[in-house]
Amino acid sequence: MRMTKIGLGVLAVVLAASIAEAQNRPASPRGQASTQVGGSFNDEGRYSGGSWIEITYGRPILRGRNGQMFGEGDDYATRIYAGAPIWRVGADVTTRINTEADLVFDGKSLAAGEYSMFIDLSADGWTLVFSNLGAKQSFREETPNTVWGGYGYTTDLDALRAEMTISEHPVSADQLIITFTDMSQQGGNLTVWWDTKIATIPFQVAN
Fold first, then answer.
1. CA 189 to chain CA centroid, nearest Å
2. Can you give the pLDDT at residue 1?
3. pLDDT band at 140 (very low <50, low <70, confident <90, very high)
4. Contact 99/198 with Cβ under 8 angstroms?
5. Long-range residue pairs from 21-26, CB within 8 A, at least 24 positions apart, any chain
6. What is the 3-state secondary structure (H, E, C) of the chain?
7. What is the pLDDT of residue 6?
8. Measured CA angle at 70 (ends 30, 176), to 5 deg
9. pLDDT of the residue at 139
10. Where does the pLDDT of residue 204 fall: very low under 50, low under 70, confident under 90, or very high at 90 and above?
11. Which pLDDT value is given to residue 185?
């Protein structure tokens, strides 16, 4: 009998922990995109000399809102901005990119370092923005020159702005995807896919 009570007690603790974990799960789980550029493989197949590029971001989920996120006409991007002046390209904490290499987007140089990443959305085109604004870790944080998501964003600390190419995909991505595509050691594409919208921009490692 005593062993049965102990077993039931352990089961109750495990169930309580599982419920608490489910309740604390964020609605938009964090994600990361990584690549390494500028290196090479030796005769033994070992890679060396590369520089990392990493993007960390919240990954919102459509949850049945297929075809509704970006809108059209005068309402384009209104829903996804949610009162902010620009899209954070994610959810919760502002999307961040950290590059160990100097990069070139659309002929414009981005020095190695860490930046906040946004997209300025318009029915006529999307503009990728790298900014020197920092990222707040909570909405109530009051650190100067930082933002929560896109709220409080201004162009004053922009490091680079470049136009992206937009296409419609017949398949809807339920969860936001940021990734690197068609990569070589000299560069490739930074790609954003959510719902049926795919935005890409080529970049190169600076010489």
1. 14
2. 54
3. confident
4. no
5. 26/58, 26/92
6. CHHHHHHHHHHHHHHHHHHHHHHHCCCCCEEEEEEEECCEECCCCCEECCEEEEEEEECCECCCCCCCCCCCHHHCCHHHHCCCCCECCCCCCCCEEEECCCEEECCEEECCEEEEEEEEEECCEEEEEEECCEECCCCCCCCCCEEECCECCCHHHEEEEEECEEEEEEEEEEEEEEEEEEEECCEEEEEEEEEEEEEEEEEEECC
7. 46
8. 20
9. 83
10. very high
11. 94
Nearest 5°: the CA angle 190, 155, 119 is: 30
Q: How far apart are CA 139 and CA 142, in angstroms?
A: 8
Confidence grade of residue 31 (pLDDT, cut at 50, 70, 90): very high
Q: Which two tokens stand for residue 157?
A: 């600390």
Q: Which two tokens stand for residue 150?
A: 């896109």
Structure tokens at 195: 């719902």
Q: What is the pTM of this model?
A: 0.86
The residue count for the chain: 207
For residue 196 the two structure tokens come to: 């049926």
Q: Which residue has the higher pLDDT, 139 or 54?
A: 54
Other Cβ atoms within 10 Å of 188 Cβ, number: 19
What percent of the chain is predicted at pLDDT more than 90?
Answer: 82
**CB-side neighbour CA atoms (13 Å) of 44:** 2
Residue 119 vs residue 19, higher pLDDT: 119
